Amino acid sequence: DTGVSQNPRHKITKRGQNVTFRCDPISEHNRLYWYRQTLGQGPEFLTYFQNEAQLEKSRLLSDRFSAERPKGSFSTLEIQRTEQGDSAMYLCASSPGEETQYFGPGTRLLVL
Amino acid sequence: AQSVAQPEDQVNVAEGNPLTVKCTYSVSGNPYLFWYVQYPNRGLQFLLKYITGDNLVKGSYGFEAEFNKSQTSFHLKKPSALVSDSALYFCAVRDYNNAGNMLTFGGGTRLMVKP
After folding, report:
1. Segment-wise mean pLDDT, segments of 10 residues, chain B, 115 residues
2. Min CA distance, B77 vs chain A (Å)?
3. Is A100 in Cβ contact with B49 (below 8 Å)?
4. Number of H helices and number of E strands within chain A?
């Protein structure tokens, strides 16, 4: 087990394009989280899955954002019609229960 | 609602000296408190947590933190700083009653340890 992995690590796209990020949690962790971190700020919660069920979504998650975890293992985060304000580091975390969340290396998105 | 404040954007300390990175929190119920460290272009690395029990918790790399309920604080400490400790440190809180397990992070404190 090598921890939470995220792909790609970097993504550059043009405004208006769609992008998709993938997160593979630590095996047997049933909880998975997405956060967004902008430069100079702490991470902000986006959404949370318990197994395949998406149980909570932040107000930050606009209609252009969608996340899935179809089989309760890996998760994808898609951003449609990207805007320059979407440029950020997107962090995924997983946990085996209610306590410690373990973070992946993040995907850095730059929207031109 | 839950919130975290890290009042110092940057802390400077000389190698070998003790360090403290401050954190205060606000939750409506009982807090779960965490410290994470972030190195450049990397994700967050877990350092330590307070859930219940002894107010002084010990974590990775010689770090420790003290939970103070009356002051709603959870300051991170280390007796002797290393240059390699230089990084960005984040305090986070979760309300025990928050079934979603969402963490709320502070804005981060940059620790600079000079030789």
Report:
1. 93 98 93 93 90 92 96 97 96 80 93 96
2. 20
3. yes
4. 0, 11
